[in-house]
């Protein structure tokens, strides 16, 4: 009784939501606060707005080839060799994305939670579970995301509601005091972490065909994720203040340390870290799925699973060396990551869209 | 293999050669027997009886009673049945007595051509009757408790339904107790079990498809479903999976369960089993397919999904709000059984900051004299408990109390006093022991019992990180399972709004309007809303 791989548009929305939140929730408040200080919530809102514009670009691009994955329509638009080159770029992009995420989770655990554990074991365990998910396929990943979503919601609400009494309005005053440039830069960095990597979702074709429903799901997932991120940014600012938020490596984890009910439960930030683990897990899985699936389609393999184990090993090795240290990572995130994602998240999709539209017009004329 | 090769092999390994030979001869015998079974019955009664005797090999429980009726000629007859399987009283009353006493007169009056139909239709006063003409049918019928009537001069046997062996009777089920609800349980007899179901579903569409599985045991299996409610695809799949089974023996429904389940390498059951008729009936009414196996009180239903194992039949007999509460309790017990020992290890070894300071101090004080790390402590206690539990199951009832005394006093009290384990650990282990009994389905508990050790290991190596990633792996695995095409985590993932009425929550009966979405696809509506009905009036 084998059934076709089907993920519903609501599952698609949930995956988009988890991907938007994953890692972003952990690192973005710091980046925003260092750019826009007490006004860091403004670029967050701006970023979400711009994100929706980017999503509309993705949707119109995907809508032209409703049954094809990213790799397939690249070849269709640009011809065989150009298409393959661009596809390899996308595969490389999502591979690098996956390695940086794994590095991030290793670094987070070693610096914040388990300082004595060897980082390679943490990486290896994470890669193992990710590859297990990828091997099981997209359907189990999507279904399990549905199961974990309420938990993410509960932990998020705890994270937001419990420290709210510690907030101090003075922390975000004076309002609207920043110049335009840092706000734009903040919005761009927000966009680069939260929205632009979502292009890899075009490796997934929900229900076998992109439709209005899936487009809506794309918007919805990204919008809800955006709201989550805005509220977290605002809250870290309110509770920790712009200075502390900017200096902290993981400001929302510092926020989680404030979560608790006095005298009953305190210092439960490790429980809060579940939120991070779950969202980062799904982000990594989708990155991995996208690159493995893309590679399999490039090589026209029937089943992508055969690539998953070797891919996992390479992933583990690269994840250990992708950043030499935290300083490098911080610098890379600002100077390289933004143009890197912008290339694959805006420039290439826009280029593909343009070429596709021109080609279509030509065809219509002929 | 050539003959010479065989010879040399036999020389070098005489024992194996002999074995081969004996295998071959027994195979020949098998084939001969198979050919014989296909043969038809002959007209000569004496021939037939000798052949049957050869076939059954002089077994002492085979009774063959020959007698003579005097009609227009003297008719030689034989009744063959197996003592203990057939009801000797009904044979005596409805075959022997009625033939010998009532039909001779009629036989004498009627023409000779009618004598067979007189014996069959007039003399034998038993409901279930049929004629067969091969040895295979005769032997199968005899083995299942019917009796065969052979008449000299006719190449057919009349099979009369005289099944009637000793039965345990319908008693209260022992594995799933409830406070409110029907107290009858299945027994070891297939017919009793199908009757228990039929008695409660008086619908013409209830189908009972019979099957015969096991080349040696020839176990009867009934596949039950309601046509028009059950998904025909699933019914077809059940049939084809059972038909594919080619095994010598089916001794319990567990055999069938393992042979038809979708995924073998998983700790979770993907087939539901119970000895309560009301549960099977409720499942059949939801569109599932029931499989009842002769010789065991445990019946199966498929497709089985995760939430089903947290439902007890009582949930539907008592208040909806309370049932919901109990279900949440069960699900949390499942998580607690799985995670409490692991969480204890993780918190005490990796994340001490999570504990309130005073609790941490008292925990540390309790652990002061313990020579082992927490993981060893947990393993000692958990394994001890598993041993106690297993011993308790297999124990003769008379010594049962000894185990509880030894368990409670020696292992619990004394181990703490001797400083082998801390008292906090005893609390953790006994707590998980109790929570593991809350899950209503016994075979689901087994999965949790096994997985608990995995999480203990993960917690000892990676702390809460290990537990969380382990949980993700578990949920992924469960999401990848299917039972007869239906996703195992159905109603949670894929999320299904309509089925939330009866998965974690149990809504009031008035709100339960439809059958489970992916299971009862053929006919989804259960009831028309009661309130609407009243309004119309």
UniProtKB/TrEMBL annotation, chain A:
Its main location: membrane. Signal peptide: none annotated. It is found in: Membrane. The chain crosses the membrane at residues 12-34, 40-61, 81-106, 118-138, 145-164, 184-205, 217-240, 270-292, 304-324, 336-358. Pfam families: Spore_permease. Gene3D superfamilies: Amino acid/polyamine transporter I (1.20.1740.10). GO terms for biological process: spore germination. Keywords: Germination, Membrane, Transmembrane, Transmembrane helix, Transport. One of its GO terms (cellular component) is membrane. It is a multi-pass membrane protein. The keyword Transport applies. The keyword Flavoprotein does not apply. Belongs to the amino acid-polyamine-organocation (APC) superfamily. Spore germination protein (SGP) (TC 2.A.3.9) family. This is Spore germination protein YndE.
UniProtKB/TrEMBL annotation, chain B:
It is a multi-pass membrane protein. Keywords: Membrane, Transmembrane, Transmembrane helix. It is found in: Cell membrane; Membrane. Residues 1-33 are annotated as: Disordered. The keyword Membrane applies. Coiled coil: none annotated. One of its GO terms (biological process) is spore germination. Pfam families: GerA. Its main location: membrane. InterPro entries: Spore_Ger (IPR004995), UPF0353/GerABKA_families (IPR050768). Belongs to the GerABKA family. This is Spore germination protein B1.
């Amino acid at each position: 009784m084998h059934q076709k791989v089907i993920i519903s548009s609501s599952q698609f929305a949930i995956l988009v939501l988890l991907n938007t939140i994953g890692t972003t929730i952990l690192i973005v408040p710091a980046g925003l606060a260092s750019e826009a200080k007490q006004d860091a919530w403004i670029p967050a809102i701006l970023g979400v707005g711009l994100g929706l514009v980017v999503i509309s670009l993705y949707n119109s691009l995907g809508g032209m080839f409703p049954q094809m994955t990213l790799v397939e329509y690249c070849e269709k638009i640009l011809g065989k060799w150009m298409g393959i080159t661009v596809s390899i770029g996308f595969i490389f992009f999502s591979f690098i994305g996956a390695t940086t995420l794994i590095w991030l989770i290793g670094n987070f655990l070693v610096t914040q939670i388990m300082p004595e554990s060897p980082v390679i074991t943490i990486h290896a365990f994470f890669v193992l579970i990710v590859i297990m998910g990828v091997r099981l396929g997209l359907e189990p990943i999507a279904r399990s995301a549905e199961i974990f979503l309420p938990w993410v919601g509960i932990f998020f609400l705890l994270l937001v509601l419990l420290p709210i009494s510690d907030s101090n309005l003075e922390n975000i005053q004076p309002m609207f005091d920043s110049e335009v440039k840092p706000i734009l830069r903040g919005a761009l960095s927000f966009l680069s972490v939260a929205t632009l990597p979502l292009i890899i979702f075009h490796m997934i074709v929900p229900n076998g065909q992109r439709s209005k429903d899936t487009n809506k799901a794309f918007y919805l997932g990204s919008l809800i994720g955006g709201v989550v991120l805005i509220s977290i940014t605002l809250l870290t600012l309110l509770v920790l203040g712009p200075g502390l938020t900017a200096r902290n490596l993981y400001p929302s984890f510092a926020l989680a340390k404030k979560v608790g009910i006095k005298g009953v439960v305190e210092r439960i930030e490790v429980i809060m870290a579940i939120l991070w683990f779950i969202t980062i897990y799904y982000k990594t899985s989708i990155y991995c799925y996208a690159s493995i699936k893309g590679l399999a389609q490039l090589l026209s393999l029937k089943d992508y699973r055969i690539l998953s184990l070797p891919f996992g090993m390479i992933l583990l090795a690269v994840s250990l060396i992708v950043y030499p240290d935290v300083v490098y990572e911080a610098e890379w995130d600002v100077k390289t990551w933004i143009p890197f994602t912008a290339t694959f998240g805006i420039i290439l999709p826009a280029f593909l869209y343009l070429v596709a539209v021109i080609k279509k017009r030509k065809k219509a004329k002929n | 293999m050539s003959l010479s090769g065989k010879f040399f092999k036999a020389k070098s390994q005489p024992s194996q050669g002999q074995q081969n030979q004996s295998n071959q001869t027994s195979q020949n015998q098998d084939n001969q027997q198979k050919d014989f079974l296909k043969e038809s019955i002959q007209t000569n009664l004496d021939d037939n009886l000798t052949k049957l005797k050869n076939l059954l090999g002089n077994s002492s429980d085979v009774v063959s009673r020959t007698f003579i009726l005097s009609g227009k000629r003297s008719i030689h007859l034989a009744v063959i049945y197996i003592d203990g399987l057939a009801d000797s009283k009904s044979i005596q009353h409805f075959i022997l007595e009625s033939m010998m006493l009532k039909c001779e007169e009629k036989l004498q009056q009627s023409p000779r051509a009618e004598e067979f139909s007189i014996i069959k239709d007039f003399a034998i006063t038993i409901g279930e009757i049929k004629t067969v003409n091969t040895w295979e049918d005769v032997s199968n019928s005899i083995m299942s408790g019917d009796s065969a009537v052979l008449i000299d001069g006719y190449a057919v046997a009349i099979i009369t339904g005289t099944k009637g062996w000793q039965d345990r009777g319908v008693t209260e089920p022992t594995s799933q107790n409830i406070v409110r609800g029907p107290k009858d349980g299945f027994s070891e007899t297939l017919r009793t079990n199908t009757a228990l179901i039929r008695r409660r579903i008086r619908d013409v569409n209830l189908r009972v498809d019979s099957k015969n599985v096991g080349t040696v045991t020839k176990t009867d299996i009934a596949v039950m479903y309601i046509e028009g409610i059950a998904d025909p695809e699933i019914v077809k799949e059940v049939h084809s999976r059972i038909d594919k089974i080619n095994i010598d023996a089916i001794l319990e429904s567990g055999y069938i369960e393992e042979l038809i389940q979708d995924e073998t390498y998983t700790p979770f059951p993907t087939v539901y089993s119970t000895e309560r008729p009301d549960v099977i009936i409720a499942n059949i009414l939801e569109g599932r397919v029931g499989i009842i196996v002769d010789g065991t009180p445990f019946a199966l239903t498929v497709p089985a999904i995760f939430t089903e194992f947290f439902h007890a039949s009582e949930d539907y007999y008592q208040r909806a709000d309370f049932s919901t509460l109990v279900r949440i309790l069960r699900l949390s017990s499942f998580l607690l059984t799985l995670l409490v020992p692991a969480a204890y290890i993780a918190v005490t070894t990796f994340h001490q900051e999570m504990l309130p300071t005073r609790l941490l101090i008292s925990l540390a004080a309790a652990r002061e004299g313990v020579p082992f790390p927490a993981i060893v402590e947990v393993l000692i206690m958990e394994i001890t408990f598993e041993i106690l539990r297993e011993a308790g199951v297999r124990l003769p009832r008379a010594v049962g109390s000894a185990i509880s005394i030894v368990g409670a006093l020696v292992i619990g009290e004394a181990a703490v006093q001797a400083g082998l384990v801390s008292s906090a650990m005893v609390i953790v282990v006994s707590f998980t022991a109790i929570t593991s009994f809350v899950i209503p389905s016994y075979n689901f508990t087994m999965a949790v019992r096994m997985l608990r050790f995995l999480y203990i290991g993960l917690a000892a190596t990676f702390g809460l990180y290990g537990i969380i990633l382990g949980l993700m792996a578990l949920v992924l695995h469960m999401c990848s399972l299917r039972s007869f095409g239906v996703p195992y985590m159905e109603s949670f993932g894929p999320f299904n709004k309509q089925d939330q009425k009866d998965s974690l929550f149990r809504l009031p009966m008035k709100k339960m309007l439809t059958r489970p979405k992916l299971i009862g696809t053929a006919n989804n509506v259960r009831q028309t809303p009661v309130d609407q009905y009243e309004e119309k009036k």
